[in-house]
């Protein structure tokens, strides 16, 4: 069932059908070829057996005819001249008619007189030798010398076993020796050289098989072509449906991305809206307390606040602000100054001073300027400090912001740490992309607002995606937690 489900999940394409079609066609041709070879081999073996059998039967029939005729002659030794002529004629008919048979190339009777062996192929000579006991003339003709030589090799076996002996020469020439035993007395052998040829039968069968095989292959090919056409049509319909589905899905994804951008934009504006309201309150308060003695200090603060409000308004124009408005060589932002302004004029400036929270700045004076807009840095650092304040616990809390510049490695380490209760262990677990859950959207331990879990997410997005920095969060052994931002810098010399 699992294999069947896996096959169902796999989507066949046109190239798979072509490969399947080719394999089936090659397989069918291979099967036809192997079957043809097997049939040919079977017919050849059958033909060899039948040729041997027919040659032996024909030679045995000739020997039997001669034996029966000779027995009739020996029963009447005092026959008249006319009867002798008929007998000689009968011998000639038997010897000549067999040679006239198709495929019979030679026929003779091998007899022995002492050490001499005679090959007789004439009725008169055979009658003289068998009836009158006279030695034949011309029995040692050159064409019978090879036959006599072969007979000398097998005569003892023929005499002892009195069975037909056949010798195959080449593919289809049979030398057949049949024991010649008239009246039960071994006198020699009847030799027949037979070359039966039944290849025409094999050729006819093979031709018929080729025609049948060709028709069968044509039907298979026609069936495969039909299946190929139907499959191609089906796959084309499926591909068209998939294309339409993908186009629809693409539109849906585009709409979803647009919606998510709008939602992200809305959340970002909502998140900065509260900061803008707080900053506007600071501006009003500074304007109310404006006097000659503090005019330069208030002017500096109000300018910073106003620039931040301008940045918030600018961000309201864009889903995704242009990169050059975030990172640009013309920006030469002093990290220490941004941190000091946030601590002194944002977090320490509250309507009712919180005596339970203490802010410490441990800033390295050798920290070089960075080519990032200062209000982008503001949006990175401020949520991390606010996270320490919100989740530090109910008791006294110390929030320390530090900078360290390592010239040998060419990077700045900006840390925000506290001595509170730390970060929940589950928020420090990374997801499948390696980002810790505290930096994911909608991840927070606060439950009093639907817009929680967005500050650390914004800090991570700005730091990593837009500034190319590194950011990490961890719990400290002595208690509390730390956010560590790694900033690569290039200092011109």
């Amino acid at each position: 069932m699992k294999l069947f489900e896996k096959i169902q999940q796999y989507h066949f394409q046109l190239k798979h059908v072509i490969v399947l079609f080719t394999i089936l066609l090659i397989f069918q041709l291979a099967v036809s070829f192997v079957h043809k070879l097997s049939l040919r081999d079977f017919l050849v073996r059958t033909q060899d057996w039948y040729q041997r059998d027919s040659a032996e039967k024909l030679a045995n029939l000739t020997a039997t005819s001669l034996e029966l005729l000779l027995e009739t002659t020996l029963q009447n030794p005092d026959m008249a001249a006319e009867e002798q002529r008929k007998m000689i004629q009968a011998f000639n008919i038997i010897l000549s008619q067999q040679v006239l048979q198709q495929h019979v190339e030679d026929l003779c009777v091998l007899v022995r007189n002492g050490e001499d062996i005679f090959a007789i192929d004439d009725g008169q000579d055979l009658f003289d030798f068998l009836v009158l006991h006279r030695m034949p003339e011309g029995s040692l003709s050159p064409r019978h010398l090879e036959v006599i030589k072969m007979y000398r090799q097998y005569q003892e076996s023929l005499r002892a076993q009195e069975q037909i002996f056949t010798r195959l020469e080449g593919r289809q020439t049979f030398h057949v020796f049949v024991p010649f035993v008239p009246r039960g007395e071994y006198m020699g052998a009847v030799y027949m050289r037979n070359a039966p040829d039944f290849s025409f039968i094999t050729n006819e069968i093979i031709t018929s098989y080729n025609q049948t095989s060709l028709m069968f292959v044509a039907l298979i090919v026609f069936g495969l072509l039909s299946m190929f056409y139907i499959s191609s049509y089906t796959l084309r319909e499926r591909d068209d449906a998939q294309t339409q589905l993908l186009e629809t899905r693409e539109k849906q994804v585009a709409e979803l991305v647009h919606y998510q951008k709008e939602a992200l934009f809305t959340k970002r504006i909502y998140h900065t809206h509260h900061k803008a309201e707080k900053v506007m309150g600071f501006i009003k308060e500074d304007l109310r307390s404006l006097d000659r003695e503090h005019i330069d200090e208030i002017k500096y603060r109000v300018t910073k606040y106003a620039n931040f409000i301008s940045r918030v308004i600018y961000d309201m124009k864009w889903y995704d602000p242009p990169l050059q408005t975030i990172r640009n060589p013309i920006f030469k932002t002093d990290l220490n100054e941004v941190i000091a302004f946030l601590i002194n004029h944002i977090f320490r400036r509250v309507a009712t001073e919180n005596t339970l929270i203490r802010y410490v700045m441990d800033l390295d004076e050798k920290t070089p300027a960075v080519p990032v807009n200062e209000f982008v840095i503001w949006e990175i650092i401020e949520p991390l400090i606010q996270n320490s304040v919100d989740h530090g616990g109910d008791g006294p809390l110390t929030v320390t912001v530090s900078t360290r510049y390592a010239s040998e490695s060419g990077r700045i380490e900006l840390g925000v740490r506290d001595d509170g209760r730390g970060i929940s262990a589950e928020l420090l677990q990374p997801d499948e992309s390696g980002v810790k859950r505290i930096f994911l959207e909608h991840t927070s331990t606060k439950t009093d607002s639907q817009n929680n879990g967005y500050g650390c997410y914004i800090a991570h997005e700005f730091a990593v995606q837009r500034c190319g920095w590194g950011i990490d969060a961890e719990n400290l052994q002595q208690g509390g937690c730390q956010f560590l931002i790694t900033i690569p810098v290039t200092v011109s010399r």
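The chain has two domains: 2-197, 330-488. The longest strand covers residues 104-113.
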